[in-house]
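new request in #modeling-help
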Amino acid sequence: MKKLLMASAATALIAGSASAESHANDVKLGVILGFTGPIESLTPSMAASAEMAMKEVSDSGKLLDGKTVTPVRADSTCVDAAAATSAAERLITSEGVKGIMGADCSGVTGAILASVAMPNGVVMISPSATSPALSDVEDAGMFFRTSPSDARQGQVLADLLIEKGLNSVAVTYTNNDYGKGLADSFSSAYTAAGGTVTGTAAHEDGKADYSAEVGALASAGGDALVVAGYVDQGGPGIIRASLDSGAFDTFVLPDGMIGAALEDTFGSDIDGSIGTVPGTESAGASKILEMATAAGFNGEGPYVGESYDAAALMLLAMQAAGSVESADYAGKIMGVANAPGEKIYPGELAKALEIIADGGEVDYVGATAVEFIGGGESAGSYKEILVEGGKLTTVAYR
Amino acid sequence: MDFLNAVVALSNYVVVPAMAYGSQLALGALGVTLIYGILRFSNFAHGDTMAFGTMAVVMVTWAFQAMGVSIAPLPTALLALPFGIAICAALVLGTDRLVYRFYRAQKAKPVILVIVSMGVMFVLNGLVRFIIGVDDQRFGDGARLILSARDFKKMTGLDEGLVIKTSQGLTVLTAVIVVAWLYWFLTHTRSGKSMRAYSDNEDLALLSGINPERVVMITWIIVAALATIAGTLYGLDKSFKPFTYFQLLLPIFAAAIVGGLGSPLGAIAGGFVIAFSEVTVTYAWKKVLVYLLPEGLEPTGLVQLLSTDYKFAVSFVILLIVLLFRPTGLFAGKSV
């Protein structure tokens, strides 16, 4: 009875707002980020960036015959799933948002998706949830993310090694979630691509001496050693012990190991080692920085570009579907994000809307060179690093 | 050829590192065993005494480096060692004057002194961290390697390389010199003889006119020297971090007890027993076995008995076995 009452009340509300002339031309988008909690220092810029994209679209007056976009903020808290789901519930049932830009942290994102967004059939694009677990989650085609899964780097690294002809490696990882996750995703991708992982050993950060760990890895053998650790923690100790004992002289270095300290410590001793680190050569990255500065917020923070892209993709998909309803435009998101079509950078949303309205196709590149793969997550772009003459040099983007 | 490769691989990953580590433990255990034999208590502050002495050496080394003094290819730390020993000796003599002498005058039971030494341990612990910080400090300089893997391979034509670090060579050499000197001191000098007499029978020694305060002072100075040398060698070989010195307490005590508390010879043997056990149990034997075994019998796994994370468990287990079955240790020291 209660549910029926609420449902009819909600219907009345929606009907009421639909009839009001002033609201007919307005689309509300939810912005659910952790405005309080562990990442509260990052979220203001992220929200500002997403709202900048919405404003750009509103100002152009080209979205579905001049609709305007209004952001509605809500607090995900980053850690409290109950608070986040009730905030999302409010956005959908009482504010009537047509899509959600968010959430931020992986845990609350999964919770909102499972208990609010999916049951209500509302599209969610997260700018910053990177847990590999979200790749396999049941989402009915409603969930996307503009940041790559943590597992993605393992895949990229594995492909790189196979291309370079390194077909057997030993792996050591720093004993925490980051190291373990990266080592696991790398190992499975590498083995699937035909490589052999000769041995895997964890290392604890902050030890005086890693010769025992390196001894075990040397016994396993391999063409190179993958060091999934930190450049200011145990990583250099592992490399030093490997060089000293002559166990390995080529190293594979994921993002945690790429840093200037590496050049200072080892110089040309590790020439020929390769690595990957997130990064893009896309012109979008500098463009978003300019726009952020002009709008008066910090564009250098993490996930600022991803937030802009998340909001922009949702709006472009609406234009492509000719509808603001999630069920209609969810299927169009992959289409506007990927080739073929005219490449779209930040600040060119008006142009994109026009192209779509004229029946053309767009390939949204955005601030972070968005390319969706698989279940609607960003492929991410990585810099391929080679140590040459004691310097970390970027040789390619992938 | 395969056999030689196996021997070289074994030397590179087991024998050489264990020799160096064993020497460091032996020097540490000698200090513990001297205190136990002469002052009659287990000095839990020994690990942190090592940390303090090493810290002094590190600071003097930095000063020398800043002044441009160097004895390359040897590490500057060797030059700083006497200064470090002097500073460390001043510290332990000060502690003795402030703390231990009070309890000695009261003829306190050994167990009380053990607890007191724990208190001293915590104070030193804090003092070292306060002065130099909790982070890793590197102070080694000079040539890093005596023999590099590449040179060795070129020289012998073998597939396996043998590496000897300068710090490893220095450690073993220094340990031999120090142990030989200590042996000579204890058996051939008046002071050494009076120390042994005091250790064997305190009352009889006092009756024959040995000055107990002098024996205690000499003991502390020797212990400070041993601790500083052991700590500096460990720091040169690995790196200096206060926490790892605190952790060294367990293998050092295990070494002293395995050898027999109060027996200098036992401490040395114990140090090597512990070091070789730790390294061999946590080493992955695959490489050596692949060389030795005929084709087809080669192991597919790593043949590693215990993950390197459990290195300290080895000292614990050996300690337990010795205490259960031979409480006086290998060289029949005093029962614990």
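bot summary: The two ends of chain A are 56 Å apart (CA to CA).
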